[in-house]
């Protein structure tokens, strides 16, 4: 007659094996962004000629910085459980504002005030921050849902960009030496120590934001609000103020992207940044930030921006039509969310069984 302990051994072995398998799968899911980056680079390296050439890498780096800067700002917003759909429109308006300040200036009576490049950058970033402030105010003080508030601002800001020059563009933004406003192209096309200035901007911005999110009370409060906003309120956190500053930062990042893109193209176009918000959200979700908030990292979002940008450039070089690109990008977002939900369920299972 077998003992109770003998009967329980097989079940215990199966339980341990299942637990090891679950932990291994959970580790793979946590590292999915690195797996995705490796797969995308490997695939296009084998299927697209000259994909890893220096010239193409430089072009991809420019595209990565654009989505990466937006993703940095979007990460903090999503960590609080919010969303910012207006960043793409803010990119377009920022480019138009920069073009207006450089080419036309501000007329006061018989005088016209022109601004040098640092002043143009400062004023444009302030306008982006103001848009973020309006978004944050609508959400925190008027209790408008983030999706609705930022969706409305998407149309308002895009309309403002189109109205600035009756739907036209500001081209050849080289400035005039007599006015002291030359050198705008250096922001998007210049380099330092052989590395493009936009790459430096992304690296510095991501590093500072990463340190703030992990090493400061403000960063911990952002995670706390996303984890449980009601508990954060009862804990005495200034939830409204924190969320307001998060949206201000997102608007600032969008304005910075508008300046970089306009500088690269030397043209301010009102439709610049169209659908950029979707790419930024895809990068953030793919990088492991939960749409419900409270979990994620800035570094993951930057790597997610690398995946999204390289995927997009690879599809263009492969001759994939714009229609299929939209389909694939949508599928990427859906799969990223599904995998994130799977990771959460698996993590809960592992925690319960250990």
From TrEMBL:
Pfam families: BPD_transp_2
One GO MF term: transmembrane transporter activity
InterPro entries given in the database record: ABC_transp_permease
Any one of the GO CC terms: plasma membrane
The protein's name in its UniProt record: Sugar ABC transporter permease
UniProt similarity note: Belongs to the binding-protein-dependent transport system permease family. AraH/RbsC subfamily.
Topology class, membrane: Multi-pass membrane protein
Keyword Transmembrane helix: yes
Species of origin: Halomonas salipaludis
Cell membrane among keywords: yes
Transmembrane spans: 24-46, 58-79, 85-106, 113-134, 140-163, 184-212, 244-262, 323-342
Keywords: Cell inner membrane, Cell membrane, Membrane, Transmembrane, Transmembrane helix, Transport
Compartment(s) of residence: Cell inner membrane
């Amino acid at each position: 007659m077998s003992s109770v302990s003998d009967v329980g051994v097989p079940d215990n072995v199966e339980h341990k094996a299942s637990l090891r398998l679950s932990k291994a799968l959970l580790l793979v899911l946590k590292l999915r962004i690195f797996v995705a980056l490796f797969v995308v680079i490997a695939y296009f390296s084998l299927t697209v000629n000259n994909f890893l050439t220096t010239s193409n890498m430089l072009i991809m780096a420019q595209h990565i910085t654009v989505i990466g800067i937006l993703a940095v700002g979007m990460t903090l917003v999503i960590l609080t459980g919010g969303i910012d759909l207006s960043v793409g429109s803010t990119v377009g308006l920022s480019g138009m504002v920069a073009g207006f300040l450089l080419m036309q200036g501000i007329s006061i009576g018989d005088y016209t005030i022109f601004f040098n490049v640092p002043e143009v950058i400062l004023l444009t970033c302030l306008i982006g921050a103001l848009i973020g402030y309006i978004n944050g105010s609508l959400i925190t003080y008027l209790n408008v849902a983030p999706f609705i508030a930022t969706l409305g601002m998407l149309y308002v800001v895009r309309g403002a960009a189109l109205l600035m020059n009756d739907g036209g563009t500001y081209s050849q933004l080289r400035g005039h030496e007599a006015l002291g406003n030359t050198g705008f192209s250096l922001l998007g096309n210049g380099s330092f120590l052989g590395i493009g200035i936009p790459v430096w901007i992304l690296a510095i911005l991501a590093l500072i934001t990463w340190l703030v999110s992990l090493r400061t009370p403000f960063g911990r409060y952002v995670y706390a609000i996303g984890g449980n906003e009601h508990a954060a309120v009862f804990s005495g956190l200034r939830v409204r103020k924190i969320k307001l500053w998060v949206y201000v930062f997102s608007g600032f990042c969008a304005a910075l992207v508008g300046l970089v893109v306009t500088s690269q193209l030397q043209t301010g176009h009102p439709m610049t940044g169209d659908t950029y918000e979707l790419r930024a959200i895809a990068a953030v979700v793919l990088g492991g930030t939960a749409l419900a908030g409270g979990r994620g990292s800035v570094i993951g979002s930057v790597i997610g921006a690398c995946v999204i940008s390289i995927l997009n450039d690879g599809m263009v070089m492969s001759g994939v039509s714009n229609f299929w690109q939209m389909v694939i990008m949508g599928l990427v977002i859906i799969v990223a969310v599904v995998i994130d939900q799977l990771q959460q369920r698996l993590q809960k299972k592992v925690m319960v069984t250990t």
